[in-house]
């Protein structure tokens, strides 16, 4: 019903920048929230940043002042601008979308989908 396409990951030197994007497609009625999580080698999956359909944002303490999340509501696309990247930012970044969808004649107000992830590698 809902598919996610993530892009923007890659290799960057410490201090550099990357911009991730996540586009959601399908029969989406509205976005409840979109966010980015990350999982480093041998670590858990942790919230990096999220944004609600109303525009409220949340950031992990480790990225405050460096990362900015934004959303294009018309395109159902969320972005993560990552500046001043550090080696410890290296991880697989995964997009999460919580949206309202219609499955047949049934309304699902919290349909949650995960992207496959995009790798960000920061070198020293």
If you had to describe this structure to a student in words, what would you say it looks like?
By secondary structure, the chain is mainly β. The chain is 0% helix and 66% strand. The protein has no helices and eleven strands. The strands form two sheets. Strands 2, 4, 5, 6, 9, 10 and 11 form a seven-stranded mixed beta sheet that branches. A four-stranded antiparallel beta sheet has the order 1-3-8-7, with no helix packed on it. The model has no long low-confidence stretch (mean pLDDT 96).
Estimated helix fraction: under 10%
The poorly predicted ranges are none
**Helix/strand order:** EEEEEEEEEEE
N- to C-terminal distance: 41 Å
Main beta sheet, described?
7 strands, mixed
Structural class: mainly beta
Strand content: over 45%
Radius of gyration equals 15 Å
Shape: elongated
The whole-number mean of residue pLDDT values reads 96
The number of helical segments is 0
Oligomer class: single chain
Number of strands: 11
Features:
single chain, 124 residues, mainly beta, 7-stranded mixed β-sheet, 4-stranded antiparallel β-sheet, elongated
Tell me briefly what this model is:
The chain is mostly beta strands and 124 residues long. It has strands at residues 2-7, 10-13, 18-26, 28-39, 45-52, 57-59, 67-72, 77-82, 91-103, 106-114, 118-123.
């Amino acid at each position: 019903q809902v598919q996610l396409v993530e892009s923007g990951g890659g290799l960057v030197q410490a201090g550099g920048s990357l911009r991730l994007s996540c586009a959601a497609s399908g029969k989406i009625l509205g976005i409840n929230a979109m966010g980015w999580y990350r999982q480093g080698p041998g670590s858990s999956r942790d919230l990096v940043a999220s944004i609600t359909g109303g525009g409220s944002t949340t950031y992990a303490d480790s990225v405050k002042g460096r990362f900015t999340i934004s959303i294009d509501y018309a395109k159902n696309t969320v972005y993560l601008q990552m500046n001043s990247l550090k080696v410890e930012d290296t991880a697989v970044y995964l997009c999460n979308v919580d949206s309202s969808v219609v499955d047949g004649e049934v309304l699902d107000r919290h349909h949650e989908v995960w992207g496959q992830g995009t790798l960000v590698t920061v070198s020293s």
